[in-house]
Write a structure and sequence with these properties.
By secondary structure, this protein is mainly alpha-helical. Helix content is 47%, strand content 11%. It has a three-stranded antiparallel β-sheet. It has 19 helices and eleven strands. β5 and β6 form a beta hairpin.
Length: 380
């Protein structure tokens, strides 16, 4: 397997090489970060809240609502172990349960506070449409063929801060930049990048910003040639960094590689030790840039795997994240594997928040608030 080849040859990944272990054991053996683990422990309930919220907003009723019986049938899919009623009552600031006057059964709708947050997020997304166009251009520019399956884009539309009608509001309105192409199979379509000339100044990897800032520091003692191919690292607290490992990471940092927006002929890459190492580092650069394009600097591993072939990544993406714990953090909370860009977070929050993230954070705050203050609200 390609993954095994990389693990044997990559200096940065050498200390994390698996020896007769299963993939599950490799995940379980990773160094834990208490801050990210605590964040995901709470975030997994937000994901359930968002799933129910989407179902409510998709209903045709006025006001938007769904029956508890309908949610009960989806309990297993939504991971509502104690049933929908018990879950909804934990978040009275978000959900309101009422008896439907006509159907004479309990229904659930969103509270005024939750609806305000929905509108706030919608406005933030609408105001940042130019940024959404740039994100799509960057995503397509990383593809070897400058096109991606539309179904893969649908997997990450929320992560990229796209409106739910992005086919019309982004793609159709920018027909000079994007076009849709039919696939070889029925009901398959590709999003194609027509022209990225006007965006060429934007096709700069996010890591370059950090490299420039590091070089411009007054107390910078690192030579520019040494930081030219480096990435920011921050390892989980308590992780033992042996001297041999530090040396290998330093060697990996200096290794030249082809950037995510640079042209490359994958078929022309020699399967030598150096060639494999460079391709592994290019894959790291691509997933680093992918995460940088997301609103919350995090994504489900399963979702990013849909782009692997199109980005020319001949690796198991999950193992790639595990091989570089100084750059990425993999969490298994909430019945899913989610990956965070470590450098983008501090104490469980984005260091550089954006309007869409801030709107979503308000909903997260209501989730964290739980039932607190609810009795006082009812009495008043």
């Amino acid at each position: 397997m390609a993954t095994q080849i990389f693990k044997k040859l990559s200096p940065g990944a050498a200390l994390f090489r698996r020896t007769k272990t299963t993939s599950a054991q490799y995940v379980a053996s990773r160094a834990r970060d208490p801050t990210f683990e605590k964040l995901m422990e709470k975030y997994k309930n937000l994901l359930k809240v968002i799933s129910i919220q989407d179902l409510i907003l998709a209903s045709n009723s006025t006001p938007p609502s769904v029956s508890l019986d309908f949610l009960h049938r989806l309990s297993q899919t939504l991971h509502l172990n104690r049933g929908p009623a018990a879950f909804l009552r934990n978040y009275p600031h978000i959900f309101h349960i009422f008896n439907h006057p006509v159907k004479l059964q309990p229904f659930c709708t969103l509270t005024p506070a939750a609806l305000r947050i929905v509108r706030l997020e919608s406005e933030a997304i609408e105001n940042s449409l130019p940024l959404a166009v740039t994100r799509l251009v960057k995503l397509l520019s990383m593809s070897l063929t400058k096109k991606l399956p539309l179904r893969a884009i649908f997997k990450v539309w929320r992560e990229l801060g796209l409106p739910d009608n992005f086919e019309d509001s982004v793609i159709s309105r920018n027909s000079d930049v994007f076009s849709l192409q039919d696939g070889n199979e029925p009901n398959t379509h590709f999003l194609v990048l027509n022209d990225s000339e006007e965006f060429k100044d934007c096709l700069v990897p996010a890591v370059e910003k950090w490299r420039i800032m590091e070089c411009c520091k007054e107390d910078c003692s690192v030579d520019r040639t040494e930081i030219q191919y480096s990435f920011k690292h921050g390892f989980p607290p308590g992780m033992r960094l042996r001297k041999n490992f530090k040396v290998k990471v330093k060697e990996w940092q200096r290794l030249p590689y082809v950037g995510p927006y640079e042209e490359i002929r994958v078929g022309g890459i020699k399967r030598t030790k150096n060639g494999v190492m460079r391709m592994e580092k290019r894959a790291v650069g691509i997933v680093h840039e992918f995460l940088s394009l997301t609103v919350e600097k995090m994504v489900e591993v399963e979702k990013i795997s849909h782009f692997r072939k199109w980005f020319g990544i001949d690796l198991n993406v999950r193992d790639l994240f595990l091989d570089h714990p100084g750059m990425f953090y993999l969490s298994t909370k909430g019945h899913r594997h989610s990956v965070f860009l470590r450098e983008a977070y501090e104490r469980g929050c984005l260091i550089e928040p954006n309007p869409v993230y801030e709107a979503r954070r308000k909903l997260f705050d209501l989730v964290l608030f739980g039932r607190r203050g609810w009795i006082e609200v009812v009495i008043s």
